[in-house]
Amino acid sequence: MNDKRNIFSRNIREIVLAFMIVLIAFAVQFRTGGLFFTGSNLFDLLREASILIMVSMGLMMVILTGNIDLSIGSIMGLSGMLCALTLKNHQDIPLFFLFLLAVFIGAFCGFLNGFIVAKLHVYALIATLATKYIFRGVIYLFSGGAWVAQAEMTPEFIAITTVRFLGINSLIWFAAGITILSFVYLNYTSSGRHLFAVGNSQSAAEVTGIRIRLTQIRSFVLCGIIAGLAGLLWVCKYGNAQSESCDGYEISVIASVVAGGCSIAGGEGTVAGVLLGALLMGTLNNILPLIRVSTYWQQAIKGFIILISIVINAAMQKRVKKQELRRREL
């Protein structure tokens, strides 16, 4: 009985999130007259949420160390634009090279963020806010403010996000792969566990021999790699690359990660929680237009979710600390 209670208390956030998603889904099912629980709509929901799930896994790596990355949307936009321009000018380029280019761009941007934060000791909020605009400026520099249209891309490139394997869209497979790799990395590798240690206490982590700065840089690089890959998939999915692509996308990503139980202070979070948080945001992105909620209210709802999630996280952390103090007293 106690074991069941412990399991429930440890996974309370994931259970609540799953309940919220189901509750919202049933409410929309009733509101739309049965349009939500259809196979095509559910697969569309997963497909639409796939990129959000991927990038949320990347941001989780950074937040676990007690930092944040506000430049994710710009990294996605830069990767997508440079890959699209490369394809436009070299139609015979292998798709594998475009994936390598996207990963390299993301890794470079992530390394730059990590270097500024870890080595130059600039607060992550300020550093990544600055690079957000720097990367966006680089997009305009290379594109000249012009679009790369679908007609200027190859059918093989566009097909990356439209093909199906075992009846499931490739975007869902990409999201599943990133999620599984994130779970394995964070739970079964020493460098993954170091992210939690650094976020919990840098001084304690340093005493145990963990290289704090290297761990912080690694988290930004991993986040950048995923964002770079997501930027390429974004262009494939929507069939164009614009200078404004993914602008502001970091709000949805932050909302997903925070709603999923990751503490902004670092050191706390689970892959399952972030996955559910991204699915919650993906569900809202799917149903709010369906029930004709205006774009402005959609943004307000996302901000409200971030605020409520931070308050709930803070309350849960206080509760855990009180329980630990009581145990020590006993």
Fold and architecture overview:
The chain is mainly alpha-helical. The protein has a domain at 38-246. The protein has 14 helices and two strands, in the order αααααααββααααααα. The protein has helices at residues 2-10, 12-31, 39-64, 72-89, 95-119, 124-143, 155-158, 170-188, 190-200, 202-207, 212-238, 249-259, 271-290, 295-329; strands at residues 164-165, 168-169. The protein has a two-stranded antiparallel sheet. α3 (39-64) packs parallel to α8, α3 (39-64) crosses α13 (271-290) and α4 (72-89) packs antiparallel against α5. The chain starts with a helix and ends with a helix.
Give structural attributes.
330 residues; mainly alpha
Shape designation: globular
Q: Supply Rg.
A: 20 Å
Q: How many beta strands in the DSSP annotation?
A: 2
SSE succession: HHHHHHHEEHHHHHHH
Give the helix/strand class.
Answer: mainly alpha
- Into which percent range does the helicity of residues fall? over 70%
Main sheet makeup = 2 strands, antiparallel
The spatial strand order of the largest sheet comes to 1-2
What is the terminal separation in angstroms? 21 Å
Outline the low-pLDDT stretches: none
Beta-strand content: under 5%
Oligomer: single chain
Number of helices: 14
Mean pLDDT: 85
